[in-house]
Amino acid sequence: MQQPGLKSFLTPLVTCLLSFAIFVFSPSPALAVNNPELLPDKVTPVVDLANFLPDLQEESLINDIKTFESDTGWRIRVLTQYDRSPGRAVINFWGLDDKSILLVADSRGGNILSFSIGDDVYDLLPRTFWIELQARFGNMYYVRENGENTSIMNALDTVKGCLVKGGCGVVPGLPREQWILTLITSIVGGLVFGFAGTPRKADQVFAWQWVLIISPLWGILFIAFGIGPVVTRTSDWLPLFRNVIGFALGVLVAYLSPFLSQPPASNPNT
Fold this sequence. Notes:
Blueprint: H1 3-25, E1 46-48, H2 55-72, E2 75-81, H3 89-94, E3 100-106, E4 113-117, H4 127-138, H5 140-146, H6 148-164, H7 176-196, H8 208-213, H9 215-231, H10 237-261
Parallel strand pairs: 1-2, 2-3
Antiparallel strand pairs: 3-4
Helix pairs in contact: 1-4, 4-6, 5-6, 7-9, 7-10, 9-10
């Protein structure tokens, strides 16, 4: 009965680690070879060699990209591939520069998405943003549930939204799996806080000195890992409220557990 819950907890963590390794250590699959014959004669911002996008959706995406480029100056290009890749030929085909963003969708790997980013883009969207974006929308579980076209469109919508508002340090939105992870760290932080505050002297009510000594540990668990990812990704107060309640419950459980486990005092008159 515990396996589905464990799987839902480990899946996003493993996906993030794999995506980080792929993003950092692997070259972009679109730039590894050079096959210009695979590209169409007419220049278009979307080259769907793998047929991931329905015709109407592809036409709509092309129009959106052109409008976005004329309004903002940022150049977004999309390449989907399956068996063969045009490789470095896309650089000359699209004239990629420092203000260009190339999304490559290739279902042959563990993660469908990869990105080639111009230097100017990193000023608004750092490398950690692209790692998280790839992990969230390109992992095999997300693609299996939503489809390749939805993965591509949601990733592009996120990028465009962040560029319009002047940049993002993290990917907006809080997936359920990520929120569960922040809730767990909040509860663990509360447990550490509660155990640290347990009285150690007969006349002591709460051991504040131990709470302060161990504050780096429970502070990192609750504030950095429990609160930080929530407030930076969503303005919704409910996940934050739940994490605070989880922290408080952890404190109460850890603080009261020694009192509850003590045997009842015997009556001297019996």
